[in-house]
Amino acid sequence: KSMKKICTVSGVEFEITEDDLNFYEKMSVPAPTLCPEERQRRRISFRNFNHLYQRKCDATGKNIISMYDAKQPFPVYENEYWWSDQWDAFQYGQDFDFTQPFFEQYQKLAQKIPRFSTFNLQAENSKYSNFSWMSKNCYLVFGCVRDEDCLYGHIVWDSKDCVDNLYVFRCEWCSNCIDCIDCYDVHFSTESANCNESYFLHDCRGCTNCFGCTNLRNKQYYFMNKKYGKDEYFEKLKKVQPFTEKTIHDGKTWLEKIKREQCLFPPLFGVKTENVSGNHIYESKNCFHCFDTKQCEDSKYLYTAHGEQNCYDISFTGANARFCYDCLTIGNTENLIFSHGISQCSNLAYCELCYNSHDLFGCNGLRNAQYCIFNKQYSKEKYFELREKIIQHMKKTGEWGEFFPIELSPFAYNESIVGEYFPLTKEDALKRGYKWKDEERTTKYDGPTVEILNTIEDVSDDICNQILPCEATGKNYRIQKEELRF
Fold first, then answer.
1. Cα–Cα distance, 288 to 290 (Å, whole number)
2. Which residue in 37, 179, 381, 404 is a FRET match for 170, CA 20 to 30 A apart?
């Protein structure tokens, strides 16, 4: 039977259904004490997407780009060195002490073990991106999964030649789009699918050669939601091209006005779904309270997930997972609980940054390992015996059954991605027990300005290496030649 509980952090009431209880029983975990939103807040406080720092590699001494600043207590290695055989995470293994809490001991372990500088796996020429997987030639794309030749984005998956996008999936040659799927040559558009060669769309599907349109289905040659002949359409398009700053501003303003005053909004934006709730759900079924979920089944509380089955409380996961609970950034995994940064693993609990392994408990940084606790090797029989004793110990200390406590996150609240999804003031964040990172002052650029010339051939590599100040924030940015070519 379902039950009502009060979140121990927010104080709000939340429901745990009979199906939820059955899932928790299968996973051998207790019912949560936090509501879904607070569980999500805690998890993603461990993920720093787009704050990058210059620092030294603690192994080679080279200057590197890292998501960890130089003040972290643990060593940080350049990615190539971290993945090499020149160091061994087993050397940090330690015994479990039943007189101390689990998380205090784990923190001591985690602060000794080296971490890679950026979360880039199987990525080529993408060192200035973060959380990049199987991607090539991508620059400042955060949450970059199976992409090629993309610039400036957040959660850009399975896409190519895309610039300045937020949450796009299987798109090509698109820019300034939000929540678009299967689009080609679409720009300044939101929540549209299967559209081509169009501008300033909202909630359009199967549309081609459309400008400034909303709520259209399988249309062609529409301008401001009005049908035109082919020649008429392109004549009208010529009047607004090439786009200027004013054209783009006016187009965005008009689109937002139409969305507020005339658009019909569906209960959720999704494509090919069955029995789902949440928003931005694609090709999924039996998924509840899920957001930005792709090709998932029989799951609940997914946030930016792809290919999950029978999973609860999963965040920022771009590859398949089965029977996993309360995890962050996992892929090709099965039977994981309370873990973060895991790939090609099964039967893990309270682990971070482990790969190609199975049957680990409280481990960090292990590769090709099995039957380990706190990075120490055991026989199969001893492992399961000790694992059960530790779980009973954690139940007594009140530590068993939820994700790592926020004190263990290496990031401040406003440094991790949680600050964007759940904004808090510094005062409120500190009250909740989170850390806060005051922004360091940077020297404002006062060098020469750069004139953008008419063609890409006119632009030299030296110009592209110039650093310019943003007119809005005063922060510096660098012009990329690929961006001008786009």
1. 5
2. 37
Q: Cβ of 392: how many Cβ atoms within 10 Å?
A: 11
b or e along 104-135 (b: 16 or more beta carbons within 10 Å of the residue's beta carbon)? ebbbebbebbbbbbbbbbebeebbbbbbbbbb
> From start to end of 71-177, where are the E strands?
76-77, 115-116, 120-121, 130-133, 139-145, 151-157, 163-169
Q: In whole angstroms, give the CA distance from residue 70 to residue 121.
A: 22
Q: Which amino acid is at 327?
A: C
- The whole-angstrom distance between residue 410's C-alpha and the CA centroid of its chain comes to 17
Q: Which amino acid is at 334?
A: E
Question: pLDDT, tens digit, for every residue of 236-269?
Answer: 999 998 889 998 998 899 888 888 888 889 889 9
Structure token pair of residue 416:
């991790």
- Contact yes or no for 196/181 (Cβ under 8 A): no
Q: Find all residues with CB under 8 Å of 245, minimum gap 6, and list them.
A: none
Residue appearing with tokens 């001893």: 382
Closest CA to 115 of 62, 63, 58: 58
Instruction: Map residue 404 onto helix, strand or coil.
Output: coil
Strand-pair partners of 469: 476
Question: Chain-wide mean pLDDT for the chain?
Answer: 91
Which pair of tokens denotes residue 217?
A: 């289905």
Q: Return the HEC string of 419-432.
A: HHHCCCCHHHHHHC
- Which ranges of 145-276 does DSSP label H, i.e. alpha helix? 230-240, 245-261
Q: Which of 336, 342, 334, 388 is nearest to 365 (CA)?
A: 342
Which residue's entry shows tokens 């946030």? 303
- Which of 349, 285, 296 minimizes the C-alpha distance to 321? 296
- CA–CA distance, 338 with 220 (Å, rounded to integer): 49
Name the token pair of 16. Answer: 């745990």
- pLDDT beyond 70 at 280: yes
Counting beta carbons within 10 angstroms of the beta carbon of residue 136, is it exposed (0 to 12), middle (13 to 18) or buried (19 or more)?
A: middle
How many angstroms separate the CA atoms of 478 and 157, rounded?
24
Which of 288, 350, 313, 290 shows the shortest CA–CA distance to 36?
313
What CA–CA distance (Å, rounded) separates 261 from 204?
A: 17
CA within 13 Å, CB half, 51: 21
Nearest to 421 by CA among 291, 326, 256, 284: 291
Element (H, E) at 485: helix 481-485
- State the Cα–Cα distance between residues 484 and 486, nearest whole angstrom: 5
Q: For residues 224 and 200, what is the distance between their CA atoms, to the nearest angstrom?
A: 9
Taking the C-alpha atoms of residue 113 and residue 73, their distance in angstroms, rounded to an integer, is 10
Q: What per-residue string of b and e applies to 15-28 under the rule 16 or more CB within 10 Å gives b?
A: ebeeebeebbeebe
* pTM attached to this predicted model: 0.87
